[in-house]
Specification:
The protein is mainly α and 204 residues long. The protein has 8 helices and no strands. Helices cover 84% and strands 0% of the residues. Keywords: Membrane, Transmembrane, Transmembrane helix, Transport.
């Protein structure tokens, strides 16, 4: 019999691994987006490469990574990070490029440096778009993390897999329901935050 404390522990572990992979991938995606703004010729190539990674099925990607990192959480986290790069990279690039040049001119007129314009004007204005990419990355990670059980990682996928092995519906649902709830709650919360930030940005 699976206890509530076991489900809670696995839910927390699932969320932690998903967040860790998403944060790592998002940082990489953000930094790459900032870099390709200075190298516009590479933008299409880099985004295209990230799109190729995104099209690789989760099981196949984890199988490749397993050869490098072995069994354990590291393989799953690296896989989630790779999946998180594209949405954040693409949205950050488009968000920063979409900032009205007039705002940059205002910053220059106030004597701001290029770095100050980036931190105080461009990033705040582009943040709702960046957050949309982060939302996609995190919700995707919640789902992909369920197959982490096949590479020796933890999380709610272990309950789903165990339930499938012994054909035990309650055990399988004990893993599937929290996964679905995590994805739904995070999707709603981040969508509401994104809309709120968009309204704040539009009122400026």
């Amino acid at each position: 019999m699976i206890s509530f404390s076991d489900i809670a522990m696995l839910t927390w572990q699932h969320l932690y691994l998903s967040l860790l992979g998403t944060v790592i991938g998002s940082i990489i995606g953000f930094l790459l987006a900032v870099w390709i703004r200075r190298q516009p010729r590479l933008a299409g190539v880099l985004i295209g490469f990230a799109e190729v990674i995104q099209t690789i099925p989760g099981m196949a990607l984890l199988a490749f990574l397993l050869l490098v990192f072995g069994l354990g959480d590291t393989t799953l986290v690296v896989g989630l990070a790779l999946y998180a790069i594209l949405p954040v990279l693409q949205n950050t690039y488009e968000g920063l490029e979409g900032v009205d040049p007039a705002y940059r001119e205002v910053g220059k007129g106030m004597g701001m440096t290029r770095g100050e314009i980036f931190r105080q004007i461009e990033v705040p204005l582009a943040f709702p778009v960046i957050l949309a990419g982060l939302r996609v990355s995190l919700v995707t990670a919640i789902g992909v993390a369920t197959i982490g059980v096949f590479v020796g990682s933890g999380g709610l996928g272990s309950l789903i897999y165990r339930g499938l092995q012994i054909i035990d519906m309650p055990t399988m649902m004990a893993g599937a329901i929290p996964v679905a709830l995590l994805a739904i709650v995070l999707e709603i919360a981040l969508t509401l935050l994104e809309r709120k930030l968009s309204k704040v940005t539009a009122s400026r």
